Amino acid sequence: MDRHTSTSQAAMAALNLWSSARQNLLVPIGTSASSVFGVRVNGATHFLRLTSQSFRSVDDATAELSFLHHLRSHGVHVAMPIPSIHDQNVEKVGDYLATLFRRAPGLHLTASVAPGR
Hints:
The structure is a single chain. The longest helix has 16 residues, at 58-73. 21% of the residues are buried. The chain has two helices and six strands; from the N terminus they run αβββαβββ. It is globular and about 45 Å long. The termini are far apart. It is of the alpha+beta class. Strands 1, 2, 3, 4, 5 and 6 form a six-stranded antiparallel sheet that branches. The protein has helices at residues 3-15, 58-73, and strands at residues 21-31, 34-41, 44-52, 81-82, 91-93, 96-102.
């Protein structure tokens, strides 16, 4: 089994941990240290991130999410995690850590859509 197949299978398994996530709407967005998939939840696009546990520990992922909560509490528009059915922001799925994020509010900035243009 190649890495892509393994990641896709883990993504499908991970979606079972979030209620209302529709598994037939899993769209790969990109990969780097993590694989990211677009997911429909209650009619809205969310993002499922899978990160290999060999790259990041549960403590690392939890600390990152704590930082996002800190930023959000100070008015920064960041993508926020959604708790799983087990009320966890990070779930272990096979060799991966899974987190489901809401889309961050605001505009997606590109070279043609930048502040001041």
